[in-house]
Amino acid sequence: MSYSELIKEAKAVGFTGVEHIPAESIVLSREFRDACAANRCGAYGKCYMCPPDVGDIDELMATVRTYTHGLLLQTVAQLEDSYDFEGMTEARKNHSRLTRELWKRVRPLLPDGSLCLGVGGCGFCSKCAKRDGLPCRSPENAMASLEAYGVNVSSTVANTSLKYVNGQDTVTYFGLILFN
Ligand code: SF4
User: How far is the CA of 167 from the centre of ligand 1 (A)?
Assistant: First the structure.
C-alpha cells in the first residue's frame, strides 16, 4: 500500500488531517509515564493498555524506534465552549472509533508487526478485563496511547504541517500508525 493510498484511506474514514512522517522525527519523552503514575485519570493499573501493564517505558520507546514510517492521524472537533467536557469525551470516542476503523482496513495491507496507537486508555470495553483479572476480551481492538509509548505528541506535531491546537472551542486528538 503506497503512502498516498494510506492517506486517502485515512481521509475516507473521516480524519481531519493526515500526514506521512519519517518515524525518526517522532519526539519521545519519558515524562508522560510519570503523569500516568500520578493516576489522575484513575486508570493506572486498571487496563492492559495503560501503565504499568502496557510495558516498560524504555522498551516501548525502543519499539517506536524500530519503525521507519509513521502515519499521523488527526481529528478536530467543535465544542460548545471550553467547559464542554461531554463534547470532549464524545470527540475522543469518535477519534478512537475512526482509528480502529482505519486500523481494521489497513492492517492486512501493512507489514506484520505494524503498530497503531490512539488517544487516552484503550476504552474499547466499558470495563477492562484487567479489573476482573481476566484476559483481554478483544486483543485485535486493544489499543495503547501515544503517550504510553512515550510519544511527545505536541513536539512531534510541531515537526509537521498539522496543528496541535486548532482554534477556540475545539479539541484536537492524534493517533499514529507505525510501520516499516
Ligand atoms: S480490549 Fe477491553 S479488555 Fe482488552 S485492553 Fe481494551 S478495554 Fe481492556
Answer: 33
144 Cα: distance to centroid of ligand 1 (angstroms)? 10
Q: Is the model's pTM score more than 0.85?
A: yes
pLDDT per position as a tens digit, 158-174 = 999 999 999 999 999 99
Q: DSSP string spanning 131-156?
A: GGT---S-TTT---BTGGGTB-HHHH
From the CA of 127, give the closest atom in ligand 1.
Answer: 7
Q: Ligand 1 pocket check: which of 130, 131, 140, 145 to mutate, most ligand atoms within 8 Å of Cβ? A: 130
Domain count, the chain: 1
Q: Tell me which residue range forms the domain holding 136.
A: 3-179
